[in-house]
Every structure is written in structure tokens, then in C-alpha cells.
Amino acid sequence: MTELHKMMAFFGVAREDLLRLIQIALSNGGDYADLYFEHSISNEIALRDGEVNAAGSHIDYGMGIRVVYGDQTGYAYTEITTMKEMEKAAKAASQIATSSIKEMPPIRINPLKFTNFYPIITSWEENPISSKIPFLRNMNSKIFALDSRVNKVLAKISDSTTLILFFNSDGLLAFDERPMASIAATCIMESDGKVENSSSSRSFRTGFEFLTDDLVNEVAKEVVERTAFLFNAIQPKGGELPVVMGAGGSGILLHEAIGHAFEADFNRLNTSIFADKFGKTICSSEISVIDDGTIPGNRGSVNFDDEGVIGQKTYMVRDGVLTSYLHDRISAGYYKTAPTGNGRRESFRFMPLPRMRATYMENGSSSETDIISSVKKGIYVDNFSNGQVQIGAGDFTFYVKSGYLIENGKLTRPIKDINIIGNGPQALADIVAVGNNSVIDNGTWTCGKEQYCAVSCGMPTVLVKKLTVGGVQS
Amino acid sequence: MSLNPKETAVKALEISLNKGCQAARISLNIAKQCSYSVRNDKLDRLQQSTGSSLYIQLYVDSRYGSFSTNRTEADEIGNFIGKGIEATRLLTPDPYRRLPDKSLYYTGGGADLEQYDNSVESIEPAEKSRIAFACASEVLGKDKRVITVNSEYGDTDDYFYMIDSQGFEDESSQSTFTVSTECSVKGRGDARPEAWWYESTIFFNDLKIEGCGTKSLERALRRLNPKKLKSGKYNMVVENTASSRLISPIISALNGASIQQNNSFLKGMLGKQVFSPSFTLFDNAHLVGAFGSRYFDGEGVATKPMNIIENGIVNTYFINTYHSQKLGMPVTVDGPSVLNCLMKGNELKKTHKDLDHILSKCNNGIFVTGFNGGNTNSSTGDFSFGVEGFFFENGKILHPIKEMNVTGNIISLWNNIIEIGTDPRNSSRWQIPTLAFELVDFNGI
């Protein structure tokens, strides 16, 4: 029995059932329909006050049916996968279409062939809580050992395994097993009556082999350094300043400043500030920006997206020219181009939308030292939390947990807790130096566009000529 | 044979106890949702769903585990709970984990809080679609600068049931009806500012459909041609659609988990004058017909109306049973229900202080209509947010602003309160009115 057959049996459906559901879904004249079956099991254990004393497991099961009619969408889901309930959902989704019933050509079932970007060596299912507990205890000990000011440690290991069965009206049939693992630590330190906190995390699509002592040491060291740093840091004087964005997590700039605005649903509706920029030069020819679903084990990777399009690497900007939006099937149809594998969804409860995967900038030619040296007065930032963007106005923001003032080409006073705001197209055009040290940040980045989606981002060090930096005036 | 929701929860409780738990709490949520979205002049999305979740909290040999599933067939639940108990037994004992003191439970008898409209089950699809189109039609053809309008009608029908092994048992139902409109307009250059408006009610007949589209269009048009201001200290007026953002860090800092983890800028502040004596924040937990109104919290503990901050003094933390044990403090509730705040001397319903009044009082400054990203340091209360809004002078709005941040400290900010309006929107659980603060740090040019 093939994996596909096993999965069909797991979800309790036969070929005839899939065909019948598609037939009902298109019964009002829809152009396209797909079925998305999902079973997810997620687990977490947490350490608090020195003990691993909380655990949880969560199961989510169901299937969603989507009908596309032109660029209109009907969607319904059910948590009960009997034919009766699924037929009801198919009927509900079919209501989006209102044309006369078309003659449906016979559907030839065609299994999807794809590369597996996240093979699992040891499944999470085979490893009970007892095998994860030592890693959290080790994390706790390491963090306390690294700095006497540590007061509290919170640490968590989360894993999930999602089984997807996908079928559409083109006959495409596919099964995917999607693992996700993360480890996170928050450290709270107290010194001379002052308290500071910071967090660090790593996340990959991988099996139990994710957990290693090296990983624990890396996260422990990082979270302690990040927290200790804050005691000497200040909120600087705010205003327009040159901003050097350190390699890695600074990819949040790409995600917020241009990534969302490149998602083709916004462009199709003409509401994105980049809607008229396709094929035009939008920034320095030294800049190429990629959205990639093919990085092995990356949090944003997809073997195939949630509408059955295989994972791929998409150049959004190549040598300064806007070369591609990020498409789902609907927007690709509108633009008469191929979908880019960006049709993603949080779960069977949601219809897919164009979403980013791993978004990063390729290397440029400058060294980080040279970039910093070129700034007389500005800031350097390298640790971030949330970001946000207004798609139409183009104003994006991200929050800086820590960084430095730059004075006369040198990193001087540590800074913290400032928001940075800019305008997407302008910020991209204002990147005047690109470093040669591009790196993907493997923290637990999650994008919240209407629904949650795992992503990642990366960047070499870059210099943005001018952004508005938050800070105190006195 | 499938069980009804209550039977499912009772069965799960029985299984938990039979398989070795000393105590357990089971909650079950069933949510039905329906939405009709219109883009410009045609139906764009139609969504319909029913979802259920069974939440299982297990207390096993002084250990605690929390589980959930939407597979509610009897044999599935049995296996799932069995595995949950097995996993929980592998944890370190935690003597602080227990169900609440029974004397704190809500025991019933309260008046109807008017949280449910039976008509949620009977509104015809054609009517839902008509409403969504009606909102869009208020925008279409009204101004040549309009690029796109999206409008949506949605309703939800939520049922919640909770039972525990100490005899607590109660249920609640909640209906919600929402209309929203979002509109994009084209101005000079490439920018396409967008704006939204929404109305949300518990009762269908209260839903204000007319004007939703018009308001979104007005709000979008007034955002055209923004200017960036010089960095400096400005009076800040925050619209009642955005003001909750400035309460949120306070509520997080009052949470028992933050206090216990030494990660709160309000730790050690109970009973102390922290904020302006003019500022009172209260929980109107039993307000009839208000979103969030409830008689019991997530543990079954009875809620009550209370002042959270009274004349600037921190009156209470949000302490559940676990953190009560850990901190040696009495249980309060797990969080606020219906939040509101007022200025000393402004009694709601007797005083009228709306946006115009507050802009006049502040004379000059920045009127914030939305926050764009940003965050607060939970240990220190330092914050920095992106803002959208307008510059006003002599009490009159002059022009929109762009690319600006506001930065400061939550405690200092609330000590600089100038005015709290009497105009909260009742479309959400946190009914925070228009706020005004004196000389706040804004960052621009």
C-alpha cells in the first residue's frame, strides 16, 4: 500500500469519494475545487521555576473544501469526515458559483511528485515526554550558570506533526507529512533593583533529531547575552537616522517593508503600494530578494503548498528589478502566470492565501565593518520582535529589542525598546550598502496575515540611509 | 453513537477520573460561523463552518497536564485521555496545582446577562448577502479616488460548557453580529491609504449597518496627503477605536503569571499610588448586554464588578488558583471581563466628554487613530509604537501624519493623563474611551 493509499484510508476516503466531493463542489458551475484533509498533533512541555511541570497535547482534525469561481471563493470545512458531512460542506462551498451547471470532464487522478525538504529521521511520536525533559533541565542549569543575575527561567519545547491529504479538480492528489519543532527560552534577570527580560528560540521542520546539547547551549548563551545586554541599554533620542541592520533577523525588514506588499492578492486588488511596479527598477542593482520554500528543514519550507503547487524558490527582486509577486492559484490566474507555491493556510479551517515562506536577501559586496564605519551618527540593530505593515500606505514598523548607537563609525552605547517606522518602497530604495554575510534567522517567526503561518527571514547587514527611529526627546 | 456536547464533556470527566486523575476540568466549545464578503460589486468570499474543541485539564498525582482535541467520538476521547494521563505522570510533581476552593465558585442565580440572540440561527443567507452589499454600496461610485472596497457581514454562534470534578457545572452562549467595510483610495504618488470601520453587536436588531461604508470612505479620504512632523513633545489624543492599546500593557502587568515570574513593571505595587489620582480602571463584569460580561471565569470562580486601578492606586492583580498558591495571595479572577476607565469626577452617563471636547481641551497635538506595530517591555513598562493619525491645532484637525513613533513609559504616560472621555465604543470587551495625555515623545523628522 502506498503512502497515498494509507493516508486515504487514514482519512476514511476512497477515490470515488474524492471525485464525488469535487463533483458536488462544482455542481453550481465553479471553475476549480480542492479538498484539504488535515490531522495535526502538537505537543509541548514547559519548565518554570526549575521544574518541568506542565505538558500538553492537542489534536486538530478535519477537512476544508474550496470552490473558486473566477476570482471568487466559496469555503466550508467540517471536523467530521463522513461523506454526509463532507457533502454538506461541498454543497455550502459550491454556493459561490451561480452559473449554469457545466459538463464536467472526467478527472484523471494524478499523484503529485515532489522533493521532500524536511525528511524526518526520528519521529516525535516515538519519543515520549521523558526523552525531552532532560533538554529543558539542561537549559535551565546552563542559563543559571552563565550569569548570577538570572532570577527566573521559562523554557519550552514544542513539536507538531501534520498530515495533509490534498486533492483537486485537476486530479492532482498529494500527501505530505509536515513536522515542526521549536525550543524557546525566556530569561529574567535582576540587578540593583532593575529587572530585564529577553527571549531566544530556534525552530525547524524536523523530527526528534532537532534536540541536541549544542542547540540547548546555543539558545542558553544567546538568551543570557541578550538579557544582560539590556541593563546598560537606553532608549535613544529618536528621529530620522541612518540604520544599519545586522545580518539575520533584520530580514523582518524584508518581510514587513516589501514582502506583504508583494503578495499578489494585494496587487490583484490594486491596493498594494507596489501594484504598478512590476518589471520596474525599485532599488539598487546590488539587491536581490528571494522568497524560498525549498530550504531543507526551514520553518517556512513547503514540499507543496496548501493548494498542491510544489515548493519553489521565487526571486521577488533580481538585481534591483521587481520580477515576481508571490502567487496563489487565484492571483496566478489573474496575472496569467504560474503559481509560485505561496498558497498557504493556517489549517483546514482557513482558505489559502498568498503567504511568504523564507524571505531573504542575497549577499552584496560590503563587509559589516565597512558598513558601520561609513555611518557618522546612526544606530545598529540586530534583535527584533513584532512587525507590522499598512499595505496601501506602505508604512511598515518593527520593534527593536536591542542594538547600539553608531557614533563616528563605531558602535557605542547599547540601545533597546524602540520602534522603527518607514515606508516600504522608500526604505528599499534607501538601502545604500549590502553586506556579504547573509544569514537566515531560525527563530520562531510567525506571520499573522488573517491567519497564522510559520515563516522565516534572513538578510546580510545592510545600511538604510534613513528611517524614523523611536526614542525619547529629552 | 455520537454524544451531545454536554454528554461528551461529562463522559470525558468520567474517563479522566476512572483512569486515575484525582481531579479534572473539562470545557467544551462549539462555534458556528458564517461570513459573506463582497469586493466592490460582487460576492468575493463565502465561508461557513462549525467547529468544536474539547479542553481537558488533568490533575494526576500532584501533576498537571492540559490537552485539547476536536475528535469527540467516545473511543477517541478515551484513548486521548489515557495518553494524556500517561504523559502527565512523567512530569515533576507541582504541589501548587489544584482546582479552586469550592467556596469561590459561581453558584448560579444571576440575572440574564443578555449575551445571546436566538435569531442567529434563522437569518436567511439572502439577508446576510444583502447587508454585505449594502455596506459596499455606500462607497461605490461615491468618490473617483476609490480603488477597492471590501465589506463583510459575519455572525458567530458560540456555546461553552464547563464541568469539573468538584461539582462545578455551567454553560454560556454568545452570539455576535458584525459588519465591516475597508476601503482603499488613491492619492498623489503610489500610496493607497486604506481605512476600515466596523460595528459589532450581540443582538442582530442592534446592528448599525447604515453608515459603516460611509465611515470607512471618510476615514480613508482624510488620510490622503499626510505630512511628517518634527520630533518633539506633543499632547496625544487617542481615539476610542485605538485606546485599548494603552491599557493592554497594564492588564498584562497585573497578571498573576507575570507577577510570579518577576516579569511585571507592576510587581510590588499592590495598594500603591502608581498612576495619576485622576485615573480609575474598572471591570464592569456583569454589565447586561455587553461583550465579555460573565458570571464565572475560566476556573468557575465567580466574577464581580471591581475597581482594578482606583484613583491611581493598584487595587488588584489577576490571580488564579495556581498563582494564588505560588504567591501566597488570595484568588481574584483570571482576567478582566468588561473593562472601562474614567477620569475622577466624570461619572459615566452624567458627563459628556467626546472627541471634540477633548481636542478643544488639549488645543494642539497629535490625534492618534491607530497604532502601527511596536511593543512594551514587560519588565520596565518602556514602550515604543508606530502611530497613524492627525495633527490638530486650536482643537481642529489639520492634516494626517505619516511615519511617526510614540515612545515612553506606561507608568509615566498614565501619570500625564489630561482627560478620559465618556465615549467608549461598545463593540468589544474593552470599552476604553478617547484618552488624552500631556506632552508625549513623538519621533518624526
Question: Could you characterize the architecture of this molecule?
Answer:
The complex is a heterodimer of chains A (474) and B (445). Chain A is an alpha+beta fold. Chain A is 22% helix and 39% strand. Chain A is built from ten helices and 23 strands. Chain A has helices spanning 3-10, 15-25, 83-94, 129-146, 213-230, 252-262, 264-268, 329-335, 368-373, 424-429; strands at residues 32-48, 51-69, 72-78, 110-111, 150-168, 172-191, 194-204, 239-245, 289-292, 313-318, 321-322, 343-344, 353-354, 358-361, 377-389, 395-407, 410-423, 431-434, 439-441, 446-447, 453-454, 456-459, 462-469. In chain A, strands 1, 2, 3, 4, 5, 6 and 7 form a seven-stranded mixed sheet that branches. The longest helix of chain A is centred in the N-terminal third of the chain and has 18 residues, at 129-146. Chain A is globular and about 75 Å long. Chain A starts with a helix and ends in a 5-residue tail after the last strand. By secondary structure, chain B is α+β, with helices and mostly antiparallel strands. Chain B folds into two domains: 5-222, PmbA/TldD superfamily (PmbA/TldD fold); 232-443, no CATH class. Helices cover 19% and strands 37% of the residues of chain B. Chain B has helices spanning 5-18, 74-88, 125-137, 212-221, 248-253, 256-260, 321-327, 355-362, 410-415, and strands spanning 23-39, 42-60, 63-69, 146-164, 169-185, 194-201, 232-238, 279-283, 306-310, 313-314, 339-343, 365-376, 382-393, 396-409, 417-420, 430-431, 435-443. In chain B, the strands form three sheets. In chain B, strands 3-2-1-4-5-6 form a six-stranded antiparallel sheet. In chain B, strands 7-12-13-14-17 form a five-stranded mixed β-barrel. In chain B, strand 9 (306-310) and strand 10 (313-314) form a beta hairpin. The longest helix of chain B has 15 residues, at 74-88. The interface between A and B is large, with 90 and 78 residues.
